[in-house]
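User: Predict the structure for this protein chain, please.
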Amino acid sequence: MFGEIPLTAIITFILIIVGLALGFLLLKVQGE
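Assistant: Here is the predicted structure, written as structure tokens:
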């Protein structure tokens, strides 16, 4: 069950996704 996943793992996963999204947006803006 997914209920066994620790909260820290979820937070870390979200931070990584947000970081990649921000990095992609910054590269896209600088490319213009």
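The two ends are 45 Å apart (CA to CA).
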